[in-house]
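The methods section describes the discrete structure representation at length, but only in general terms. Since the whole study asks how a given chain folds, the encoding of that fold should be made plain. An entry of this sort, consisting of the sequence and the corresponding backbone structure tokens, reads as follows:

. . .
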Amino acid sequence: MKSIWSFILPATLLLYACGGNGTKAGGDQQGADTASFQPATPAGKLAVAFPADADTTRISIHFEADGQSSDKTFELPLARDVAEKDLYRAVWDKPNSVYIGVLKSDHSTRYYHASVDNGTAKINQVGTPPEAIWHYAEEKAGLGTISLDMKATDSYEQQIQSGTIIADLIVKKLPVASPDSVKMYAEYGGANKTITMVVPAEATTGIVHSPSHPEQAFLVQIMNKKYTNLVEIKVENGHLKINALR
């Protein structure tokens, strides 16, 4: 993934939704505040970059407000199966304070907070942003909504050359007797593995892949037009690798 720089100018901005990183709770008043929340008009600017080198992924954040500035870089396993422009969103809760949500490889969201505190610009990782922010983000920005060019299917098959091996990577769902489970079979170069997982009965499941990474696919759980990665399947150095993400 090449380095991406996005400059956020004074405008109404959006943030990725909370991907299960914190507790969503609150009373009636908190719910009312959440429903009426609108992002603040920025009095500063923000730049976010995702420089990547092989398996090392990082997020670099530059923040300016009130005549102060700060730069910070964090290591983070980024989602590879979404368009680059969808890796992050940001929402300003104050003119000099902004939350940045970044989509991780398992489709949960890592949050960062950039603000000016006591005359000093700071950028820190946070566990969960205020409810009004993640709720606004989830309802308005639609984190994880399946793009029209990435539909989940019941199977994926692609010839892959990895090292000295040329073989078909095969990933497919297998029949199950219960709606609250999913069964997946993966095969490459003579190696194969079958995995069974429990999922919500109301969810659907499928296989997705990115055209830019034919050596990799994901078993996903789909609810409310949003998907969560359950298992990563990839070919690396001639070997089939299966990584459970949930």
User: Anything to note?
Assistant: The two ends are 24 Å apart (CA to CA).
